[in-house]
Design goal:
Blueprint: E1 4-9, E2 12-17, E3 20-22, E4 29-32, E5 36-39, E6 44-50, H1 54-61, H2 69-90, H3 96-99, E7 101-109, E8 114-121, E9 137-139, H4 159-173, E10 175-177, E11 183-185, E12 190-197, E13 200-208
Antiparallel strand pairs: 1-2, 2-12, 3-4, 5-6, 6-7, 7-8, 8-9, 10-11, 12-13
Helix pairs in contact: 1-2
């Protein structure tokens, strides 16, 4: 999994994510990598969370015509299913929870002249109530990993100035149990912010954590960032 946050603002849509890929066996970092596909011509950024390498999804999408935004959205469910199916064959010992993939596509819609987000999850835990796995849902909500809810004041934050603070909080709070039974932190590597607007897609590196390949993520003390009281809501991660 990863931290994959989306803000939809009047003039742009944003994806803020980390870059650590780790071993499900023991939580050690395997590599630091990109987790967002950029389709500049279509003004689209696609963020991925779960057992899903960027190259896998890029290859699956390339099997379809991708001339328009509608083409990309139409191809996404089948492409994600191809990746999920391949991973299920490669890792037969992993259950559905470990094999889960969540995709958030942010685009600039020229018809409405606004950014919008489309969500696809292969597991119900990554979807809002009433939504079904394997279906693509499109809207204009800001989505905090992993609840996919616009709650707790998250949508009111400014991603240009506060995205890193959100990722830092998630770095301290978001954990998962490895197959060996030990919990490990999941947010690390490089913090990156992608912006999608009428001009296209741009990205900016927000921070590089001192994480090392082959080791578990070492989370900084809670006072790593000194937040003023009430500056950020009590985000659920």
């Amino acid at each position: 999994m990863t931290a994959l946050n989306v803000w939809i603002k009047p003039k742009a849509g944003y994806i803020a994510c980390d870059g650590a890929a780790y071993s499900v066996a023991d939580g050690r970092i395997l590599e630091i990598r990109e987790k967002v596909i950029v389709l500049e011509r279509q003004r689209i950024a696609i963020g991925m969370m779960g057992v899903c390498h960027l190259d896998q999804l890029s290859t699956a999408l390339a099997r379809h015509p991708l001339t328009t935004q509608a083409d990309v959205k139409a191809a996404l469910p089948e492409s994600v299913h191809a990746v999920w199916k391949a991973n299920a064959a490669l890792y037969p010992l992993l259950n559905d929870d470990w094999l889960a993939i969540s995709v958030k596509l942010v685009c600039w819609n020229p018809t409405t002249n606004r950014a919008e987000v489309s969500i696809l999850g292969t597991h119900p835990k990554y979807l809002m109530a009433g939504q079904n796995p394997w279906m693509l849902y499109t809207g204009q909500s800001s989505l905090l990993h992993p609840d996919l809810e616009d709650g707790g004041g998250f949508s009111e934050l400014d991603p240009e100035t506060q995205a890193l603070e959100v990722l830092e909080r998630q770095r301290r709070a978001v954990t998962m149990d490895a197959l060996d039974g030990t919990p490990f932190a999941m947010v690390g590597g490089v913090a990156t912010l992608y912006r999608v607007n009428a001009a296209g897609v741009s990205k900016r590196t927000l921070h590089t954590w001192p994480d090392k390949i082959g080791e578990r993520i070492e989370r900084e003390p809670i006072n790593r960032f000194c937040h003023a009281p009430g500056r950020l809501p009590d985000l659920r991660c």
